[in-house]
């Protein structure tokens, strides 16, 4: 099922008619709750979706993904550093592990990590493309501007390694793919299988608040809005309140000041998709959701989101709000008031 689905959602191969997804039933945002989206210098690389990001210090790193380059849609390997203090971009070493989309990423102990994902191998004369799935995890060291392969996932057979997510708690990272979960130890570069997620989810989002991890939304034959909480101490999952907005996949998520945020993404089946730009705030103490400010850019599918120095950043992605796919390179900061 996954191989068929992942082929269907590659926009390079299809023209899809899409609609806006701003819901009339969404609750209003009161004046005292309003924060601000502020536009920042655009990502200087080619516009793309399926990119990854991680944060080291006051720098955000963004790269890989799928976009338009040299008049052709293709996978990319360039990487860039965003300095939140100077609001400037600098190109860094390209990712050496091969062109990759829908990888997972996170940062720990002064290093950034990128792993899993896929690429397409297509016949020169046209026809059905083959998926090539990656099983490696790489680390980026900013002091040397270099990448190093640190471990290969060698647990069972991968039916797919695309569309996963990851979060960090303490000195361990937790990597999700389908319903599988692994704990990564950066000191020993080892992977340990943990309790499976209660559902098989592709294109979900994740964030960590305190000593708990959260994974929500996603796709498994249809769009989802469930949220699951992971406790690494007990190695148990607990289902929490579902997202207040519509079901979706390919959204973005982040945690800020003890609260979780999910926004963007698309809804619907393959032939009836639409793009969201709404954002929702999750309070883990109350296990409740509250609508916050809509994203100020275009609605986004498979964008990136990360937090630097208490401010969230959202950018790139696939704008599916019209009758064509547009790969974006805009970049926005979410400022709490």
Summarize the structure.
It contains one helix and 34 strands.
Helix-strand blueprint:
Elements: H1 2-8, E1 19-20, E2 36-40, E3 48-49, E4 52-56, E5 59-63, E6 66-69, E7 72-75, E8 79-83, E9 88-92, E10 104-108, E11 111-115, E12 118-121, E13 130-133, E14 136-141, E15 146-152, E16 165-169, E17 172-177, E18 180-185, E19 190-193, E20 205-209, E21 212-219, E22 223-231, E23 236-240, E24 252-256, E25 259-263, E26 266-267, E27 274-275, E28 279-283, E29 288-292, E30 304-308, E31 311-315, E32 318-319, E33 326-327, E34 331-335
Parallel strand pairs: 1-27
Antiparallel strand pairs: 2-34, 3-6, 4-5, 5-8, 6-7, 8-9, 10-11, 11-14, 12-13, 14-15, 16-17, 17-18, 18-19, 20-21, 21-22, 22-23, 24-25, 25-28, 26-27, 28-29, 30-31, 31-34, 32-33
CATH-defined topology: Neuraminidase
**What amount of the residues lies in strands?**
over 45%
User: What's the number of domains?
Assistant: 1
Unreliable spans = 1-24
CATH class: Mainly Beta
Which radius of gyration do the C-alpha atoms yield? 18 Å
* CATH level-two architecture: 6 Propeller
End-to-end separation in angstroms reads 44 Å
Description:
The protein is an all-beta fold and 337 residues long. The chain has a single domain, classed as Kelch-type beta propeller (Neuraminidase, 6 Propeller). 2% of the residues lie in helices and 47% in strands. The protein contains 1 helix and 34 strands. The strands form 10 sheets. It has a 4-stranded antiparallel β-sheet, with no helix packed on it. It is globular, with a radius of gyration of 18 Å. The relative contact order is 0.17.
